[in-house]
Specification:
Length: about 260
């Protein structure tokens, strides 16, 4: 074999080796990317079902549930196409069944106030849900009017969750006759709901909290100044006084709501 033939042969072998190495690396890269895609979709599907199972039942309105289940069904079908038949068939059927049952689902009962740890976990899930809805909006998967209402409702739920923790603390403080501390907790709850006061449920809760603060303030003043306690004659006049206070409170609330509407 001539030197030229040897050089050509060695060069061909080198090119063949490099080509095989490139092909092998490309296949490995494609395999890794395929596994990453499957893992990302599995994590997404798991997150979607966490919204449905870990958030309190009364937190999710039907449109939000339908949005979550529609996306979960699409993800499970994509996983089936990537993983092959068999593995995701049961989950696809479960998603379809949940969607069908959604139409006949009854209005859930109000959930009990969460503990501080539960509230933290719920708020983290709500933050993920907020980002999920935003992403669906950017992808054009939603009509323009749905995201605004949904995002406002999620924002309200996050504020409500923290407010309920504070109100629960306030009620325990009031039972222990620590009225000033209870009032402070109610004010903190008000500051949470004030962030989403345009939401109807938030406005109703704000009215309730203000009334509770008014009542607690009267108790605190009676506790701090017992000499001002009403006499027997004054007690007879209490019903009329209570009615007058209630009327004043209603007028204050109407004025506040008009101001809120004007600010909008």
């Amino acid at each position: 074999m001539t030197p030229t033939a040897i050089i050509i042969t060695l060069f061909a072998l080198a090119v063949l080796g490099i080509g095989m190495l490139v092909i092998s690396q490309a296949r490995e890269k494609a395999r890794i990317e395929h596994m990453r895609r499957i893992q990302a979709l599995e994590n997404r599907h798991s997150m979607l079902w966490r919204f449905l199972t870990e958030l309190p039942e009364d937190y999710l309105e039907q449109p939000i549930k339908r949005l979550i289940l529609d996306r979960a069904l699409a993800v499970s079908r994509e996983l089936k196409s990537l993983s092959g038949p068999g593995k995701w068939d049961k989950q696809i059927a479960a998603n379809e069944q949940a969607l069908q049952a959604l139409a006949a689902e009854e209005q859930p009962q109000p959930s009990s106030p969460p503990s501080a740890d539960q509230a933290k976990a719920i708020r983290q899930l709500l933050q993920l849900l907020f980002r999920f809805v935003e992403k669906q909006q950017r992808n054009g998967s939603l009509s323009s009017d749905i995201p605004r209402h949904t995002l406002q409702h999620i924002h309200y739920l996050a504020a409500r969750c923290q407010a309920e923790v504070l109100v629960n603390q306030a009620q325990h403080m009031a039972q222990g006759k620590h009225y000033r501390r209870a009032i402070h907790a109610y004010h903190l709850a008000l500051s949470q709901l004030d962030k989403c006061r345009e939401h109807q449920a938030a406005a109703e809760s704000i009215s309730q909290y203000r009334l509770a603060i008014k009542q607690l303030t009267e108790r605190a003043e009676a506790q701090e100044h017992p000499e001002r306690a009403p006499t027997a004659e004054q007690n007879d006049e209490m019903p009329d006084a209570v009615h007058r206070q209630w009327d004043d409170f209603i007028h204050e609330e109407e004025a506040w709501k008009k101001k809120a509407d004007y600010d909008k």
